[in-house]
């Protein structure tokens, strides 16, 4: 469907019938398109003409799409089935993996603490570290305080 710009501008009340007739007379005398002549004569701005043509084009496209998809329908090929049990979350798996991960992290932390511990624990360990003999040893004495006694 060809858009007749003069009729469209008249319908939108952007120009008068006299202005359209003057643009058509100008077209007969000098050639060119009616829309260009209306802009050249100052009856309509170029932006107005572009916006109006764009609006008309969008309306035509919407009409074509509507006709194209008219009658098209959707049908269900396979109905949806509800699951028998939830897919997620798998609580038992999360619980077992969490316990195993906790044990592994705890074991790794204990091994790292033991490996990084540089303190001397007993006299034999001290003797193996130093080239000198041990001259004296202070024994470990239990606390003289009894719990609850003052």
What this model shows, in words?
- This protein is mainly alpha-helical.
- 57% of the residues lie in helices and 0% in strands.
- Helix 2 packs across helix 3.
- The N and C termini lie far apart (110 Å).
Task: Tag the structure with descriptive keywords.
mainly alpha; 150 residues
How are the SSEs placed, and which strands pair?
Layout lengths: L4 H7 L5 H14 L3 H7 L5 H24 L21 H26 L6 H7 L21
Helix pairs in contact: 2-3
Mean pLDDT: 85
**How helical, in percent, are the residues?**
55-70%
**Total of DSSP H or I helical runs spanning 4+ residues:** 6
Instruction: Give the tally of β-strands.
Output: 0
Biggest beta-sheet profile: none
Our measurement of the CA-to-CA distance between the termini, rounded to an integer number of angstroms, reads: 110 Å
**Rounded to an integer, what's the Rg over CA atoms?**
47 Å
Share in β-strands = under 5%
Envelope shape? elongated
Query: What are the low-pLDDT stretches, counting only 5+ consecutive residues below 50?
Result: none
The sequence of SSEs as H and E is HHHHHH
Helical/strand content category: mainly alpha
């Amino acid at each position: 469907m060809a858009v007749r710009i003069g009729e469209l501008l008249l319908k939108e009340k952007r120009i008068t019938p006299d202005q359209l007739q003057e643009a058509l007379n100008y077209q007969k005398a000098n050639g060119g398109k009616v829309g260009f002549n209306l802009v050249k004569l100052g009856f309509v701005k170029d932006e107005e003409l572009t916006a109006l043509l764009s609006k008309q084009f969008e309306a035509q496209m919407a009409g074509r799409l509507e006709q194209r998809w008219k009658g098209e329908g959707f049908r269900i090929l396979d109905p949806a089935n509800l699951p028998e049990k939830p897919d997620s979350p798998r609580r038992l798996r999360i619980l077992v993996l969490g316990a195993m991960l906790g044990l592994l992290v705890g074991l790794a932390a204990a091994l790292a603490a033991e490996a990084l511990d540089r303190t001397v624990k007993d006299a034999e360990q001290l003797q193996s570290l130093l080239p000198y003999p041990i001259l004296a040893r202070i024994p470990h004495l239990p606390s003289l305080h009894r719990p609850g006694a003052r």
